[in-house]
UniProtKB/TrEMBL annotation:
Lineage of the organism: Archaea, Methanobacteriati, Methanobacteriota, Stenosarchaea group, Halobacteria
Single Gene Ontology MF annotation: 5-oxoprolinase (ATP-hydrolyzing) activity
UniProt organism field: Haladaptatus pallidirubidus
Protein name: Hydantoinase/oxoprolinase family protein
One Pfam family this sequence matches: Hydant_A_C
Start and end residues of each Hydantoinase A/oxoprolinase domain: 201-486
Swiss-Prot/TrEMBL GO biological process terms: glutathione metabolic process
Length: 668
C-alpha cells in the first residue's frame, strides 16, 4: 500500500538477499552470508538494509520471506523422523512407487530410499471403495497403532488411506484419534492433497509430515526474532508463487518446498509486465545452482508434477528446472579426464578461492575472475573484497590436473562447461516442451546470472536479454510483488459429456470454502477455477481454466487447444474430467520503484577475455547509467550485488525503471 515500508528477504545457499522499499520508492538492497539457522541471517540482513535506508526496523510495515528450510530437509534427508499409517495391505506403496526407472537403460539404477522406512510404516484394517466406506477402522486398533508410533520415537505422522481423496471419513477418524493420542504433527492426505493416484498422494503427504517440524520450529524462531527487532510477523512465499500467512504455512508445510525459486520467477514476471514482453525465460544463477522457468503472457508457468530428490510432490508450484551450476559450483576432472562443473558447491563458507576465506577449490566464480568478468576492484555484496591471485592459483591447479597450458585455458573451459549445463536446462523448459526459445527474452538475475546470460542467449539464438535493476536480489524483490494465493484440488472423474452441472458446482463450492478459509481477509479474494482433463485412455492430464460458471463445451475446447499446443495434435476421442481446482488470489499492489542515477558511470577499464580474444574493456558503475543510456559491447557493468557482462556485438539500453535490455548476438 502507498506509504508503507515493505521488506522482502530471500535465503539462498550462499547469500541471504534483502530488498527494502521505503515510502520514497527508492529501492534499498543488501546481501549477507546465509547462516546455519537461517533466521539469524534474515534478521541481520533486515538490520543492514534498514541501516542503509536510515530507518528503524520498527518502521517496517510488511515483511515477506522465502527460505530453503523444507527443500534443504529433502535434499539433505535430515527432516523429521516420520511414521506412516495406511490401509492394511498397502504398507509398501511408498516403496514400490511407479515402474518408471530414473534412467531407462540403466538396469542398476536405484530409486531413492523412502523417507519413511518400513519399520515405521503401520497398517489399519479399513476399506473404502468407489461407492463409499465398506469397513470403518476400529478405534482401539488405532490407539494401539498410536502407541507403536510413540514407542518408535516418531516426530511426525503421515496418514494416507486408500481412496481417502474421494471418501475421507475413515482417514479423518484415524487422523483425529492419532492427534488425540500423540503430541506430534499429523498430516492427513485428504487435507494435503485430495487427488487420486495413491503413490503420489502418499508421497506428498509424507513430505508434508517430514518437513512440518522443521518449518514450524524455524518460523517460530523467526517470529520471536522479528518481534524482538520490531518488524511484523512474516508472510511466507509458497512454491505456487503466492504468499501466505505464517500460521497457514505452518499448517501446510509442503507448500514451501520451492519457496525461494518461486520468488525469483515472480520478480521476473513483474519485469515482463513492465517491459511489455509476451514471453520470457527466467534464468536465476546463484551461488549453488541455477533455476530456469517460463513466463508467458505475463503469467508464471506452474506444475503439479514436480519431483524433489526423487520424491513426487503434487501440490501446485512454479515450474522450475534446476541444475547444479552456480557461482560456487566446483570444477573438477572426472575419471575420463573430462572437465566437469558441479553439482558440488563451495557454499558461503569457505566459498570460492577468490573470497579469501580459505577456499582452495576452483569454482565458476574463480573462472569469471580469471576471465576478467569480475575485477579485483569489485566488492561482492558491496563489501567482500576479492583475492584475484587465489582465483588464478586455483585455476592453475585445475589446468595442471587437466593437462591445460594455463589458468586462463582452465577458466575458459569452466565457463563453457557451466554454460552448457545451463543451456540444457533452458532447452528443457523451451524446446522439449514445444517452445522456440528464439521467440523469448532471457531474464537474467541472481548474483552470477547477468555474467553468463548473453553467452547463453547466443548459444540458443536468442536476441534479447533483460537484466532487472535489482537483478542481484530479484528473488527478494519478487516477494514485494507476489499476490497472496491458496490452492485446493478434488478428484471428480467422469466423461465430460456425462457430467452433471450440480456435481461440478457443489465440488467447486467445497473447494471455494476450503481456499477462502486460508485467506486472512476472504472478502478481498478472487477465486479462480480450473479443471484437469485428458482423452479417455490417456495417463496424464492438462489443466485449463474452467471460468466462473462451468460450461462443458467451452472447457472441452480449451482442452483441445491446450493439447494441440502441448503435443501438436488433437483427437476425436471422448474427453474425461479428472480433477477440479480452485485458487484464491488476493492481489497486492505492485511495487512502484524509483530509479535514480548516482555518481559517475565510467569507472575505468580492464583486460577481459571473450572466447579466444582479449579485449581492453570499459567498466561502468551501473547505477551511474541514466535512462536511455546505451552501452556498446564489450563492456562490464558493476553493481553492488551483481555484474553484467556485455559481450562484443551486443548493445545495452537502460529503461525508465533501471532495467537493462541487451540486444544483439552476432558474436565473435
Amino acid at each position: 500500500m502507498a506509504g508503507n515500508t515493505r521488506v522482502g528477504v530471500d535465503v539462498g545457499g550462499t547469500f541471504t538477499d534483502v530488498v527494502l522499499l521505503p515510502p520514497d520508492d527508492e529501492l534499498v538492497t543488501a546481501k549477507v552470508p546465509s547462516t546455519d539457522d537461517q533466521s539469524v541471517g534474515v534478521i541481520s540482513g533486515i538490520e543492514k538494509a534498514c541501516e542503509e535506508a536510515g530507518i528503524d526496523p520498527s518502521d517496517v510495515d510488511a515483511f515477506t520471506h522465502a527460505m530453503t528450510v523444507s527443500v534443504n530437509a529433502l535434499l539433505e534427508e535430515n527432516g523429521a523422523k516420520t511414521a506412516l499409517v495406511t490401509t492394511e495391505g498397502f504398507r509398501d506403496v511408498l516403496e514400490i512407487g511407479r515402474q518408471a526407472r530414473p534412467d531407462l537403460y540403466d538396469v542398476n539404477a536405484d530409486k531413492p530410499a523412502p523417507l519413511v522406512p518400513r519399520r515405521r510404516r503401520f497398517e489399519v484394517a479399513e476399506r473404502t471403495a468407489i461407492g463409499g466406506v465398506r469397513a470403518s477402522p476400529d478405534e482401539n486398533e488405532i490407539r494401539k497403532v498410536a502407541k507403536r508410533i510413540r514407542d518408535c520415537g516418531a516426530e511426525s505422522v503421515a496418514v494416507a488411506l486408500l481412496h481417502a481423496y474421494q471418501h475421507p471419513e475413515n482417514e479423518q477418524l484415524v487422523a483425529d484419534t492419532l492427534r488425540e493420542e500423540l503430541d506430534v504433527p499429523v498430516s492427513a492426505s485428504h487435507e494435503v492433497l485430495a487427488e487420486f493416484r495413491e503413490y503420489e498422494r502418499t508421497s506428498t503427504t509424507v513430505v508434508d509430515a517430514y518437513v512440518t517440524p522443521a518449518i514450524d520450529a524455524y518460523i517460530g524462531r523467526l517470529e520471536e526474532r522479528a518481534e524482538t527487532l520490531g518488524v511484523p510477523v512474516p508472510r511466507i512465499m509458497q512454491a505456487n508463487g503466492g504468499i501466505a500467512p505464517a500460521k497457514t504455512v505452518r499448517e501446510h508445510a509442503v507448500t514451501t518446498t520451492m519457496s525461494g525459486p518461486a520468488g525469483g520467477v515472480v520478480g521476473a514476471a513483474e519485469t515482463a509486465n513492465q517491459s511489455n514482453l509476451d514471453g520470457l525465460v527466467t534464468f536465476d544463477m546463484g551461488g549453488t545452482s541455477s533455476d530456469v522457468s517460463l513466463v508467458r503472457d505475463g503469467e508464471v508457468e506452474r506444475t503439479t508434477n514436480a519431483e524433489i530428490n526423487g520424491r513426487p510432490i503434487k501440490t501446485p508450484m512454479v515450474d522450475v528446472n534446476t541444475v547444479g551450476a552456480g557461482g560456487g559450483s566446483i570444477a573438477w576432472i572426472d575419471a575420463g579426464n573430462a572437465l566437469r562443473v558441479g553439482p558440488q558447491s563451495s557454499g558461503a563458507n569457505p566459498g570460492p578461492a577468490c573470497y579469501g576465506r580459505g577456499g582452495t577449490k576452483p569454482t565458476v566464480t574463480d573462472a569469471n575472475v580469471v576471465l576478467g568478468y569480475i575485477g579485483g576492484s569489485s566488492a561482492l555484496g558491496g563489501e567482500l573484497e576479492l583475492d584475484v591471485q587465489a582465483a588464478h592459483d586455483a585455476l592453475s591447479r585445475l589446468a595442471d590436473e587437466a593437462g591445460l597450458e594455463s589458468a586462463l585455458d582452465a577458466a575458459r573451459g569452466v565457463f563453457r562447461v557451466a554454460n552448457a549445463n545451463m543451456t540444457r536446462a533452458i532447452r528443457a523448459v523451451t524446446v522439449e516442451r514445444g517452445h522456440d526459445p528464439r521467440g523469448f527474452g532471457l531474464v537474467a538475475f541472481g548474483g552470477a546470472g547477468p555474467m553468463h546470460a548473453a553467452a547463453l542467449a547466443e548459444s540458443l539464438d536468442m536476441s534479447s536479454v533483460v537484466v532487472p535493476h535489482a537483478c542481484g536480489v530479484l528473488s527478494a524483490y519478487g516477494l514485494l510483488a507476489a499476490d497472496e494465493k491458496h490452492d485446493s484440488v478434488k478428484t471428480l472423474r467422469s466423461q465430460l459429456s456425462g457430467i452433471t452441472l450440480d456435481s461440478v458446482e457443489s465440488t467447486y463450492d467445497e473447494l471455494t470454502d476450503d481456499v477462502l478459509s486460508d485467506v486472512e481477509k476472504p472478502e478481498t479474494a478472487a477465486v479462480r477455477r480450473a479443471a484437469d482433463l485428458r482423452y479417455v485412455g490417456q495417463s496424464f492430464e492438462l489443466t485449463v481454466s474452467a471460468g466462473e460458471s462451468f460450461d462443458a463445451e467451452a472447457v472441452a475446447e480449451r482442452f483441445r487447444e491446450a493439447h494441440e499446443n502441448a503435443y501438436g495434435y488433437t483427437m476425436d476421442d471422448p474427453i474425461e474430467l479428472v480433477n477440479l481446482r480452485a485458487t484464491a488470489v488476493v492481489e497486492r499492489e505492485s511495487p512502484a520503484v524509483s530509479y535514480r542515477t548516482a555518481g559517475e558511470a565510467r569507472k575505468g577499464s580492464r583486460e577481459v577475455f571473450f572466447g579466444d580474444q582479449r579485449h581492453e574493456t570499459p567498466v561502468f558503475d551501473r547505477v551511474g547509467l541514466g535512462e536511455g543510456r546505451t552501452v556498446e559491447g564489450p563492456a562490464i557493468l558493476e553493481q553492488k550485488e551483481s555484474t553484467v557482462v556485455v559481450p562484443p556485438a551486443w548493445t545495452g539500453t537502460v529503461q525508465a525503471d533501471g532495467t537493462l535490455v541487451l540486444s544483439g548476438g552476432d558474436g565473435e
